Amino acid sequence: MENLSALRSLVAAAQEGSLSAAARRLGITQSAVSQQIAGLEQTYGVELVIRGRNGVTPTQAGALAVEHAGAVLARLEQMGEAMAALQTSGEGRLGLACALLMAQTVLVPVLADLRQTHPGLKIDLKASDAVQDLTEAGVDLAIRAGSTGPGTGTVRKLAEIEQVLVASPAYLDRLGRPTSPGDLARLDYIQYKDDPEETSILMESGERAPVTAAFAAQLPNLICHAVQSHLGFAKAPRFFVHHLIEAGEMELVFPEQPMPKPLYLIRAERSQGASKRVEIFVTRFVAELARTPGFRVAPDLRAQAGA
Questions:
Q1: For 10-36, what is each residue's pLDDT tens digit?
Q2: Could you give the CA distance from residue 87 to residue 75 in angstroms, rounded to a whole number?
Q3: pTM for this prediction
Q4: What is the pLDDT of residue 151?
Q5: What band does 138 get if pLDDT is binned at 50, 70 and 90?
Q6: Does 70 or 271 have the greater pLDDT score?
């Protein structure tokens, strides 16, 4: 069990990028996280993370350890859920929180299908871009992108969301297509919500591309409208703009560099009695992610999703 705690600390530190964030996620002290990782390094005789002023970065050995540790922890969680599912029912309420965009897109066919296949399962959806502690929100599960958010609970990575840069073909015809990330500075950036600190975009290559925000759109649909009106370029989840790209109304900027954003499932500690309901929802949701363009399902879930 001691090694499992250390593996959880290593995985959390690698995913969060810092020891303090990992400690908050796990509900322990930062020194405990550091000591557990140091214990693993001593056990295996290799350095697993590089500690720096800006956080921690896994070494090559650390990345390998995180990959295997993630699979081990996921399998243990699956075992626990399977054991609990033997004693729980698929009927009843399941409280779910997620962002508005996810609720309005990917979740729609999931909820419609579950209503037909499991009529006794009542999903209470709280769709909001405000990130709340699961206990305070009174929900069993939360789907969150980018970070795991506040509070405690069991965290599981479901997939990576491919974020892409898009503009209208007419806009790029007029201003010219960028040939390097540095070229983005001369184009107008349509920002999602107002974030004065967003002065650059981190590309998948690790390079930061400077951006000049022309204006901010408060809703995803406004982002699409602004791009289609030839007002600039924007960053958007591929699953949200896929149909517009296919229709030729939007064009990918640097299509070879999609920017991955982790998608997490956070399960509240209070939800242990809902294991069967959680299993039903997660199985159907992961299957939807696997068939939707723009999602990379986590390796340990690909067999479950039929991917």
A1: 999 999 999 999 999 888 999 999 999
A2: 19
A3: 0.68
A4: 67
A5: confident
A6: 70
* Domains along the sequence of the chain with CATH: 2-82 (1.10.10.10)
Q: Is the confidence at residue 1, as pLDDT, over 80?
A: no
User: 167 exposed, middle or buried (CB, 10 Å; 0-12, 13-18, 19+)?
Assistant: buried
pLDDT of 304 reads: 64
| Helix/strand/coil (H/E/C) assignment for every residue in the chain | CHHHHHHHHHHHHHHHCCHHHHHHHHCCCHHHHHHHHHHHHHHHCCCCEEEECCEEEECHHHHHHHHHHHHHHHHHHHHHHHHHHCCCCCCEEEEEEECHHHHHCCHHHHHHHHHHHCCCEEEEEEECCCCCCHHHHCCCEEEEECCCCCCCCEEEEEEEEEEEEEECHHHHHHHCCCCCHHHHHHCEEEEECCCCCCCEEECCCCCEEECEEEEEECCHHHHHHHHHCCCCEEEEEHHHHHHHHHCCCCEEECCCCCEEEEEEEEECHHHHHHHHHHHHHHHHHHHHHHHCCCEEECHHHHHHHCC
Read off the pLDDT of each residue in 25-49 and give the average, rounded to a whole number: 92
